[in-house]
Known about the structure:
heterotrimer; B: two-stranded antiparallel ribbon; C: globular
Amino acid sequence: MTELSIQLVNLFASFLLMLAFAMLAQRRVLTLINLYSLQGLTVVAATTVVAHMTHQEHLYYSAVLTLILKVFLIPWILHRLVKRLNVRWDVETLINIPSTMLVGIVLVVFAFNLALPISRLSSSVVPGTLGIALACVLLSFMMMIMRTKALPQVIGFLAMENALFFAATSATYGMPMVVELGIALDVLVGVFILGVFLFQIREQFESLDISHLESLRED
Amino acid sequence: MLNMMAIDWVLWIIGAWIALGLLGIIALHKFALVARVFFPLGAVGGLILAYAAAQALVSGRVESKQLALGLPSLPFHLRLDALSAFFLVIIGLASFGISLFAAGYFRNGEGTAPGLLCLEFHFFLASMALVLLADDAYAFMVAWESMALTSYFLVTANHRLPKIRAAGFLYLLIAHIGAIAILLCFGVLQANTGDYTFANMRAQNLSTFWASAAFLLAIFGFGAKAGILPLHIWLPEAHPAAPSPVSALMSGVMLKMAIYGLLRVCFDLLHLHIWWWGVLMLALGLITAIFGVVFAAVQVEMKRLLAYSSIENIGLLFAAMGLGLLFRSYGMNALAALALTACLYHVAGHAFFKSLLFLTTGSVLHATGERNLGRLGGLIRFMPWVAWLALIGVLASSGLPPFSGFVSEWLLLQSFLFTPGLPQPFLNMLIPIATASIALTAALAGYAMVKFFGVIFLGQPREEKLSQAHDAGKFEKIGMGWLAILSIGLGVAPNWVLHLIDPVTKGLVGEGIARNASANGWWLVTPTSIARASYGPLYFLFGVMAACAVAFVLVRLFYHARLRRSAPWGGGHSWRNSRMQDTAEGYGQPIRQIFEPFFHLERHLPKPEDTEPEYSVAVSDKFWEGIYMPIARATEYVSVKVGRLQQGRISIYLLYSFITLLVILLLVPTARR
Amino acid sequence: MTFTRALSQVISVVTPLALAPLLLGWVNQVRAWLSNRRGPGILQPYRMLHKLFNKDSVMADSASSLFRFAPYAIFGCMLLANAIIPTLSTDLPLASAADAIALVGLLALARVFISLAAMDIGTAFGTLGARREMLVGFLAEPALLTVLFSASLNGKSTALATIVEAVVHRDFAIYPSLVFAGMAFTLVYLAENSRVPVDNPSTHLELTMIHEAMILEYSGRHLALMEWAAALKLFAYSTLGIALFLPWGIGQRATPSSLLFSLPSLALKLVVIGAVLALVETFSAKLRIFRVPEFLATAFLLGVIGMLTHILLGA
């Protein structure tokens, strides 16, 4: 039974990695949001399996919380944002997508190597997932760097949080409940604030292209 | 006479080549004598050389000799072991085909006199063979330098064209910079004993630092000759400049001398093996391979395309060697043997198919006078022999079964798949990337080669005069046919070749794979075990042929097989001309777009108001702008500064001498103390 | 080699030959159903082959011998590819003749021949198709290799039969690396068989076609061979996918009865795969030609990540 659970966690970990790459390669904002909620769902599944495997009640709660927040609520908010801001166009990237993915591979190698000694020390039954979670964090970070529009950057930030959450559950069987609740609230508030910001940016520049923010002086 | 030692045979052949060259001087302008007699004689010499070396290889004897040549008390030490014998076999076999081709190829009154060409050509062959026999740094460097010089003269055979002189100069320059590095490398290897024989170098135990220094110098020196990034720039200039048999000899055989040198230094003279050497070599090789093949795919000049393809193949060889070093550094000798076998197999395969391809470009050049792909096309109709022989070379070069390129690629990939056994996790992570790049290189090589063959030989002739093209002559056909047979033979009978490679890897890393490989029958290659991997090229050949034949017979039997000829479909238009087909530029366009950061592109786009719109795109190497031009400018700057010292007035020069004298006199007392 | 072994080898060659057009017909039929058409029936490819074989072959004036030779070579390559892939049994006499790498080489050989044949006439369409085919090929081929390498790292062998047996014999387990490999394989499968996101098998719009552009100049029996070879290619890729990812139910001995027992499970899997393929094709739109490298680069990189995860997770 644990054998199967471990395999399942590994499987979800690689799903996460694949989703991270998919987000890196995705041009459309709406698909990006859907991928984000899919990522949330994978994290929920992984958390549930870990909870079942280690018999830790509180992980069930955090799974439910994640489900509500990251699979339904935040994607819904994002969808609304897209509709209200009318930003359905394709996302532009700074470098072309195959090169981005190549850099992504390098990051994965880097992350795997970084995580290898750490996961050897770890008491977790699924040591390999730490490397994958780290890779996902780095990939999401890179996605934030590579995009020129504000909304995909927000999604990149959220994806990074997902990856961190996964790292926490798989490597150390979750954080204390209080911390988790706090983070969840932070993320939610963060999304609201970012939404407000986006409106402000658009009103100011009539575009969400963050290159407009580069001129720091007021003219 | 017949029971001479193999090394004597080899020396006799070298002597014969030198003699043929000298005879060429005597018969300087007797074209028929030189072309129809001397070159075929040289070819026969090559065959004898190959046979003698193969005997030495199979018998496993190590023979050595001293020749009292050159400076007194500094004799040439010569030694024939498995490694040099293997490369001698390749020289012999390849030169047989190339010399025969050259017999029919060189025309009277082109640039250099025929007798002089004969001299340079045979001296070139002889010096390459001597490089392989050399057993001390002195003999090695003499042979190495005469190899560079003779090939320089061969490259500049058409020395009246300034472009060719420039290409030759670049080649000579880089060859010499490389030679200096090699000399320094030997200097490090002899470890201050003052004894420059290889036997002495073998006996030295260098510290990690000095061994690494020697390794880096070797990689630089031999890499310059082989055309490793970023020292590759002479290759795409020199190969197109040289006459085709010379390009064939340089690309097919001379580049391999650099591989030989590296193998000699890394596996024979150095005993220390450090893992990062392997990684460095592997990385250099892979980058070179991808770079070369991407550039090959966008070239519009046939010999440049092949030159870049040679760079790619050298990259693959470096990758295989690097992998071998890596395995060796962890003491996994059996796997090191596998990687080295892949390397040596590819050395042989590349020697034959690349020579073949260069020779076919020679035939095309003679028949049409064109080297630009944009002005060729449809030649399969006028030169069927050359076209079908070129097809064999193209398929071998693309690494397709059942030809020679595939076997080495297969062995290389197999050895890569064993790397999860390496004890270092970091290296394990890099391996998938290396494997994927090799796969990408192989596939891109197919792209470049399809372009090469398709644009030259298929489609409509792009120029009127092409329909006048004639097929190759008798000598040329035999020469190319020989190389084509070797390319096929290497592809379908790998186990025999592996038996020849076996003594070499046994000498280098103490293991061989041949016994294992043919354990399941001579027709099946199984590097380790049959459950792990196996490949039976003959099944392939017969399988495809049988399927073709059965399909053909069945179609004939059951259906009438009428064939009607008509004009091709013109998309609804009645007119159609040869300019509508894809050009070489067009064929390379996807690659240009995908790998844009690789290139330095210069596009000229037509404007709407142009009466004669012209579109052109020129692709060049970023290394020119990035590395070589700054160096050249810096050199120029320094020489201008130094030039100020030269005023041209005698009294100033005398002043310089006087000051120097004073300074030395000042220094004398300090030196005595 | 006994008689039964030889017989089972023959069966495993003839089965793809006979069933390949049926698979193609099935895919086309499901596509028709999904777009609310009645469809020509799943036997249509046979009728088409019969018709084409009976017709005269019309060939361009300028066609060379290579052009006439190519259909047979391509057909032969595809047939051999089907013989190599463990379709019905993992224990066949010819199985040791080629491993996964050689299989990729064989498919590449066919690709080179079809591209060269397309360039032979020298029309704009032919050369365009050839260039695009090589463009697809040079990315799809390494992607396929990485997929096969992920599988062979799992099975510790590049011999296809050993890989399949390793999966069948082991206890059921989930291999994350195979998830990546499976995704990559799906993309390669679509691209290599000229399916919708990359190419459209039913298109005759010159600007978008790849495979059709290359065989534009073929007619009569030569075209029939080309079409049959294309069907065989689809069959080969489908059975390769089955062998790598869903091999359960394959026969493990080289006897005709064992082959016959594994036939129903193979047929079932093919029916499902064909239907899924039609579904994917119906739901996706064709990519712009310069999005195709991205599509295939994704496949390639997924394959590489598959190998990486194998090394990290050990499965």
